[in-house]
Amino acid sequence: xxxxxxxxxxxxxxxxxxxxLVLGWxxxxxxxxxxxxxxxxxxxxxxxxxxxxxxVPRKFYRESKIYAVSKREVNFYRxxxxxxxxxxxxxxxxxxxFSKKKVQSPNDPAYIDRFIVELNKxxxxxxxxxxxxxxxxxxxxxxxxxxxxxxxxxxxxxxLLPLMVLRYNKPRLLMLKTRLMRSQKxxxxxxxxxxxxxxxxxxxxxxxxx
Length: 210
Fold this sequence. Notes:
The chain is mostly helical. The chain is about 70% helix and about 0% strand. The chain is elongated, with a radius of gyration of 26 Å.
């Protein structure tokens, strides 16, 4: 969260100075409209997230092809060294009751299933947030290209970064689920074999000797 706040503040300062020194706005006027536009952008982002959470049914986030991540996409994330910076990206899942920062119960199939659903939900909401960032361009504020567009671009990037982290983590979570399922099947098979052997031994013990 601190990183996000720093990015927002620094971008506001840069946009304000650009409009002041390059485009000839007064400093007060530039600062006012940059601050106001940023505030409107934050309101739009929050409202969009709330509407998405209210209107989209939970079953929509069940695993399907629309949440699939290709090997090529994963290779791209590796190429940009996502492992180096992904832990610095803000994760707000805990505010909704489920943190996706770390897998807490890797051996619990029910927990992994819920994690995948929450991951899909996060992916969908950040996709909507990335696209919705540019709704600010529909608001009639001064400085379409010099204020509104940079504000929209920063907001889109702040949505895109966590989206990339979630999509990078998705295949690894599915692999973990596959391993758990195989382990469960193996344990079930072993239990059935033990039960069969015990049953055979019991029957043999109960057979009367001549």
